[in-house]
Records
---
Amino acid sequence: MPATAASAALGTRLDHLSITHGKRVRLWRLLYGAGPANGTLLVLPLDQGMEHGPADFFPNPAALDTDFQFRLALEGRYSAIPLGIGLAEKYFHPYCGRVPLILKLNGKTNIPPDDEAVSPLMATVEDAVRLGADAIGYTLYVGTPRQDVELLQFQKVRQEAGRFGMPIVMWAYPRGSAIEAQGGKGTLFAIDYAARVAEEVGADIVKLHEPNDETAGVPEPYRSLRESAGQRLQRVVRSAGRCLVLFSGGSKLDPDAALAKVELCMRSGAAGIIFGRNLWQRPYDDALALSRRVHEVIARYPA
Amino acid sequence: MPATAASAALGTRLDHLSITHGKRVRLWRLLYGAGPANGTLLVLPLDQGMEHGPADFFPNPAALDTDFQFRLALEGRYSAIPLGIGLAEKYFHPYCGRVPLILKLNGKTNIPPDDEAVSPLMATVEDAVRLGADAIGYTLYVGTPRQDVELLQFQKVRQEAGRFGMPIVMWAYPRGSAIEAQGGKGTLFAIDYAARVAEEVGADIVKLHEPNDETAGVPEPYRSLRESAGQRLQRVVRSAGRCLVLFSGGSKLDPDAALAKVELCMRSGAAGIIFGRNLWQRPYDDALALSRRVHEVIARYPA
Amino acid sequence: MPATAASAALGTRLDHLSITHGKRVRLWRLLYGAGPANGTLLVLPLDQGMEHGPADFFPNPAALDTDFQFRLALEGRYSAIPLGIGLAEKYFHPYCGRVPLILKLNGKTNIPPDDEAVSPLMATVEDAVRLGADAIGYTLYVGTPRQDVELLQFQKVRQEAGRFGMPIVMWAYPRGSAIEAQGGKGTLFAIDYAARVAEEVGADIVKLHEPNDETAGVPEPYRSLRESAGQRLQRVVRSAGRCLVLFSGGSKLDPDAALAKVELCMRSGAAGIIFGRNLWQRPYDDALALSRRVHEVIARYPA
Amino acid sequence: MPATAASAALGTRLDHLSITHGKRVRLWRLLYGAGPANGTLLVLPLDQGMEHGPADFFPNPAALDTDFQFRLALEGRYSAIPLGIGLAEKYFHPYCGRVPLILKLNGKTNIPPDDEAVSPLMATVEDAVRLGADAIGYTLYVGTPRQDVELLQFQKVRQEAGRFGMPIVMWAYPRGSAIEAQGGKGTLFAIDYAARVAEEVGADIVKLHEPNDETAGVPEPYRSLRESAGQRLQRVVRSAGRCLVLFSGGSKLDPDAALAKVELCMRSGAAGIIFGRNLWQRPYDDALALSRRVHEVIARYPA
Amino acid sequence: MPATAASAALGTRLDHLSITHGKRVRLWRLLYGAGPANGTLLVLPLDQGMEHGPADFFPNPAALDTDFQFRLALEGRYSAIPLGIGLAEKYFHPYCGRVPLILKLNGKTNIPPDDEAVSPLMATVEDAVRLGADAIGYTLYVGTPRQDVELLQFQKVRQEAGRFGMPIVMWAYPRGSAIEAQGGKGTLFAIDYAARVAEEVGADIVKLHEPNDETAGVPEPYRSLRESAGQRLQRVVRSAGRCLVLFSGGSKLDPDAALAKVELCMRSGAAGIIFGRNLWQRPYDDALALSRRVHEVIARYPA
């Protein structure tokens, strides 16, 4: 991409932000210096070992060795790989400078129930800086009864990230007993609110799930809405405002379904795609092949 | 306004306060340097996206883009726009110096029940200083069972604000199971107590709702009171002491009802009006037109 | 008072204390430099607006304006006026140096139930120093199920006060479900224990309520005691050890009853009287007249 | 005692410890510089006013005045007097340098139930240093459901004490609902565990109660043990390892029973005796006489 | 071992780690400078006195004196001895430099139930550095309902350990009501998850129990697995990734069974063995003899 084009694109994504040079440098690297490099993001997350346990690796035991994902991120030209402190410290070594790192700062196991979910810090912004990460990842459980704990913890992280010029990628997940009592964590109501919260609390990029079409138990005016899948995606993209939206793949789909999802998300205004299990639960070569097909789609949505 | 008049007015509002020069400068800007500029305040808040979710924008989807409110604040000559860290960082850029910012420091979603409501910090006084805000906004849930958490958190904010000379605008909201058991959050009992608490804990300006005339379940001596709407407003203004009182508009009213409310509030001693949904849930031109009519009313109550 | 007499008196009250010069200076001002100035204390508190709400001002609405109490404290020659940070910042200005200030550091509303009462900090010792206070006021809820929170918070305040040489006036209030299960907060058992706790935790001056003669539910050996009102007062004065005891007036009494109470308290060894509602719930002139009569009684108990 | 003897004795009690010179100096003062001065300890505690209330002083009202205990400690040649910050600040003055002080750092009232007992800090190691104390006293509730709070708080105290070379005397008290469900706080099981915990967490000296012979509800292998009173004492002394053990007197005994208890404890390997109510609930002269008889016993167990 | 061999071996175990020189030095000492000195670990823990109480010493009362374990660690050529702050401060003195110390930072008694288990800090990384430890030990209760507390506390320890170059040996223990509801703490599901968590949170070495073959109540896909004891061990070693795995002995086995267990664990990829009660619940000479036989097995698995 010629400098002028990059500059223009940078304008589209970055110029309106009142951010330090450090954050601008790192966001540029993610959007234009790696991955699709056209202002979009293709992200390969690996937090499932902590969040779900080793069970997620049963379909493809080779993926238990984190080198698998790093290699895939490199050869599959991913924008970044988000993972936790333990994996970063043990496996990032040979990929430093070649694959952008998003250090996932918080996490938890899924063993206790999620009624009052909170996601404690497992690393700090300082760790991210020390490890040469280009962003931090942070999970916020939106609407959990313990939201005071969640928001306070994030506040400190946001402020620290601001000081270091570290972009924030937020996993904005509706969660907890109150959201379950209002239709569940996958509804448009829940995800639309989560999108807005991400913007309100100061995320730069937000990872969201695709909202379902469930309306039972959902509060108005959402209960009466009847929107297509694309309209729902567009709505949450608008609610996220100037947060760049990544839609996630969720559990493994067949390749064509996965690609159709990518297409729909990008057409709806997403800034990119974050695909974990859809990729690394496949054999390496299949994962690489699918990655290439995803690139072809994303290439049609430069920003 | 000639310097002498300003000086006299400043005396009325500010001279009795034992405050640093920094706070005096900022309060002067809010009261005499922007908005009606006659010692009153006309404030356009935008914390509803966090507090209520995107549903509040359904009547006027254009308002989802925070630029809408900033533009309205500028062209409608508002004294200030209060909003959270995420919106300030992403949308304040082109309005710096032209629209005073009140950085709302705390907030929460309305997804979990409010029985034991607390409002966690989402930003700090340091953020407000860095962003060039002219005041901080703070929500205190008066009478919540977790008031120890609420008051302790505010204490630290107040002390920090004092050090930086940052005025404090308090959203003093009766809230929680105990207040519900005593007649609810909208009664004169509840709001009158909240007004006093704002003064006691050290707010400079307090936002209050207009008290209703409900007396069921309310403790004495309030239960036996029979006061007009105007008398109730005057009472809470007196209870707020030397805190300047802003009355809020609440949900959308028709323009004439809104103007009547403004008139009544100002006549009852309010220092100003804080109108959010009443403004930005209307099309831009309607909102601007209504803003002008509000200015006409307020202009008759200089201080 | 000639220097020699003052010196002797100071000995009586202060010589045994291992305190810094700063605390000695401030205690001297309270005991010999203001109010009765004979080693006793006459204190006019104003924390009821926070603790009880504006309802306490209904009998005398003029008292809603804190200037009322400051004026009364000045003209009625009170030893000090204790109030919170908000009132101190807004109303102390014209009285600086003329009326000693006791900055009340903690407080709460009475809206939620008191079963597990705690009283959070609303200001700090640093605030007291900055405002020129001569002491800090602190409420300790003795015997509350959350006594660990209460005692830890006080510990930090005591240590900070020690560093700055700031005397501590403790409102030692038995409170909470456990004390209610043992006869209630007003019994000799409860108040006698509170008096000792004040001495044990490091208060300089303790405000106590007059114990009632209730014995139902009270533990032994208190249940079997049958003591006169005067004996009960003497007992708690002894239990407070070298803490100076202030007895409080409680709710409004008729003037003669109030004076009889003062007489009995002083005769029982109290160091002084703390009268709030008994004073400022009366019209100004009545309050001033009663203050003078109280002075006459107290003048007969120099120390 | 000639220097050589002292040096040998010091070896017995102190040489194996990896401690700073400051701690060595202070332990030497307690063991060889005061009290029996033969490597044993005779300690006169006064924390009951806080822990039990003024009721403990009913048998001997003169003891309400803390000067009583200080005088007794001096004339009765006690190794040290442990008490809290309030008493130390108000009564230690004339005894500085003449009676070693153990500043009791934490405490609570006995008003709320003990099911989830914790003992909050009421003073700090810094206070102890400032007051010239020769050790700190600390109560640890072993086995309470809130042991995480208890242990974390102690950890900080231990580390601070280590930095200042301040010996730690631990009141190791089994307490709480879980210990009650396993036979109660007085069993050999409970006290043996407490002795070990004191050693494990880093106490230098541990105060323990004499274990009873109750086995109902106690876990194995303790339930099947049938040991004499002396065997039980020896067992806990062994479990405390290199912590010096003080056995407490508990409530008042007749003088001969008290002396028999001292004899048995010392013969079982205790480093000393801590007798509070057994002493100061008696008239001064009786207390002094009993102290002398205790000295005669202890003198036969030099270390 | 010649330098070249050591260097190669060091590569196997250490080269991939992005760690400071300090950590490399200490890990080298544990793996090649002490114990089997062939890249494996033979560890003699002594945290049972705190975790289980003195009952664990009933089979061999001589072991109550911590000198027993230190002597055994020295003469039995153990890689390290992990124990708490109190034991380290009192017994490590004569063994400094001769037996590597792993300072166990947290712990608790087993008196209260484990439903919501947390393990509070009893010492800090700073203590470990001061005492000359070669690693810290840390217990993490995986899946406990209070995992937020557990993970946050560990986060701070990990970061501090990182700064000082202190290796982390994690006791990764599934624990609490939620894990009990999913088959219990000993299942492959539970221990496999714990292994992964240790790697994810940043442990260097993890101590795990051998998983049982229980499947009742266990979630899929584990419920359907039917694996041999060796296969289960291999699985958890793989799940621990680049964390070195120590399998624990658990309660006392007969010598041949213990040796068979060692053989199986080492063959399954363990980096070593951690045997406490299996050793020090035997008479000294038996323990020493068994240690020698364990060495013979381990010598066949250099790394």
Note: DSSP finds 13 helices and eight strands in chain D.
---
Amino acid sequence: MTRIVECRISSCITLSSAPVARSRVEYVLFAEILAPPMNLLGPELVRDLVSLIQQAESDDRVQVLVFKSGDPDYFIAHVDVTRISQYREAAAALTGEPLLAMLFRHLSTSRLVTIAQIEGRVRGAGSEFVLACDMRFAGRESAIFGQLEAAFGLMQGAGGIQHLARLMGRGRALEVLFSAEDYNAELAERYGWINRALPAGTLVDFVNSLAHRIASFPPFARAVIKERVNGIALAPADDFRRDSDLFLDCARTPESQARTKSAMDRGFQTRNAEMNLERMLGELVEP
Amino acid sequence: MTRIVECRISSCITLSSAPVARSRVEYVLFAEILAPPMNLLGPELVRDLVSLIQQAESDDRVQVLVFKSGDPDYFIAHVDVTRISQYREAAAALTGEPLLAMLFRHLSTSRLVTIAQIEGRVRGAGSEFVLACDMRFAGRESAIFGQLEAAFGLMQGAGGIQHLARLMGRGRALEVLFSAEDYNAELAERYGWINRALPAGTLVDFVNSLAHRIASFPPFARAVIKERVNGIALAPADDFRRDSDLFLDCARTPESQARTKSAMDRGFQTRNAEMNLERMLGELVEP
Amino acid sequence: MTRIVECRISSCITLSSAPVARSRVEYVLFAEILAPPMNLLGPELVRDLVSLIQQAESDDRVQVLVFKSGDPDYFIAHVDVTRISQYREAAAALTGEPLLAMLFRHLSTSRLVTIAQIEGRVRGAGSEFVLACDMRFAGRESAIFGQLEAAFGLMQGAGGIQHLARLMGRGRALEVLFSAEDYNAELAERYGWINRALPAGTLVDFVNSLAHRIASFPPFARAVIKERVNGIALAPADDFRRDSDLFLDCARTPESQARTKSAMDRGFQTRNAEMNLERMLGELVEP
């Protein structure tokens, strides 16, 4: 029988942890993200992510880390554009660099296996976060993916370009990055954005079973495999740093600032308005 | 309401141009290719492509360039094998180098976003042309893709290898390149050759809507995104040059010349015979 | 009419060879693997593979080499874990290096076009073998793919990581490599592991037709195309060598040895037990 331990890391992340069957030493950790009202990636959530990663990595029993959302409509909405310097500062607590890109890349090189179990909307840096995880499984009915940056005159600064160009190839990556459109789970699977789209009724059991199976295998080989795969398919750290700089360059342009204002006027960063963000992004104006 | 401006660039390309809604400064340019009798890529079409690119790039209002065909059966058939030196000379007008490969690669690095809206057959260098575009959407019922070179003892000289090996991986690329078979739109989508196969009834509206949406977003971020994606997924210019040299090496072999002659005897480069080119290519002989 | 020549190379491989229609000089060679009781990759099969490759490469008439299995349930089960040093020694006969990785990579750079026609189970180094072939077509109803190494605390040592990370991208490759699960042909196709899954009723004709078509085209261009594709999509030899070393490092760990013993106790390397190997791998224990 599985013993579940629950705890809360600060305010945004609740953990539950289950030991692997037939073992007293391996654990799967489930991190549930819930930062009301809509799981914006602001300083609090970044701070809690840093704590979670530090805690999980320092506990040798934890093998696999599963991320899911406590909000059925939003996995991670995107960054809080009104607090860019604050969330960057919070990210620096993990790597010494104030870059979401490097916080996310840390996950990609962690000894922990990370799995994103995605339901609801995941856009912008939220998408870049799940792309940094080792695997991505999404609920076929509810998951929605988008890289919204281009609509704001912004470039993806937290690794999205590095991952998407490699996962889906030049043509599909340019479409996703230029269009700022929403992609449902089925299309995200077809494009290689995620591993698989699964019916909501089977997603949880599938991820649980996979996570426990992986956690039951010896960690040494897993670390070697991950290092070899990363050597082929994970971009060098400097490419992540450069993307982060270019994001900031874009954010300083008057066009980008005018478009952010236009979006805020239309309800950007509010729960209801972002239920159909795709349409709003097509209507932004510059004065 | 959208104002459409039409004009003709020399003989092979008709342009129509539509301003983006809510804007007086951004335009989408639609280039319709019609070089009777079957959209062969010969010196005239290359010359007109060069003019089109120069004109579109020099007009800051133009953001997105959509290529489509005025011939329902042929998007671009392939190069005119009887006029290789002439179309190469025409290509040199853009880049100073007499290489289709570099003409096409210029498109891949252009500030313009290029979208291929494909109906009908697109083979050989025609396929290499659409691969150089930023995105490819095809009519599910009519689009047919093929790299015919191997049947003639030729290598793909205009970038097809560079794109296909990256888009579809080693196994599928070798199949496509070795087999010289026809691939329908559904299979081309599954292999990653194109972004998506869409029903003919929705293709035009889909591309129009996507093109206008992209054109309405700020160009600065788009240029940065494209540069970053190209840094990952577009081969260096010297690889395109090398492919072009190897194509010429192959074209000089007696086997290749004998097979071209055998094909011409069977109606190669005529509209009717190429409706089922796949079969003809399996029947070529060397004396 | 096609003349079929049959012969047996030692004990594990039966050859049949068919001349290409309209030609007296090009041949397709069909190699049927049958090493009872379950097509384990042991020293005999490796020895026969080496003989086959040497014989086929030295005969200029042979253009295409098709691998299929004489056992409906197993294409290649995996290596014989009780005879690692022996099969490594047998592999050295081809390249001078006692590495399956280099034997397989030799195939990937051979002038021969290699096609794997897969029915039944293909796991571990069996999967790495088909990944080294130029193309992979699988029977939709029967083919089953798996990289079982992680369950034994092993890393894939014969090139599987190099191929899978490039074919399916980081997320799907990590899933396949970490999970040691079985993948049916449909999912293997979706992930890019194979070119296509085809109904059993059409697989043989499809592969025969493709093989003969390819063999009928001039070999010079084919060699150039393969070299250019390999320059993009085939890992350098040193990466294969490094993977092989890391495999041996893993195999020396006590965890790995304990898990191999636990598997042998449960019937590993017996025909019946491996019909549902996926489940057994989830039940291995370390004392």
Note: Chain B has eleven helices and eleven strands.
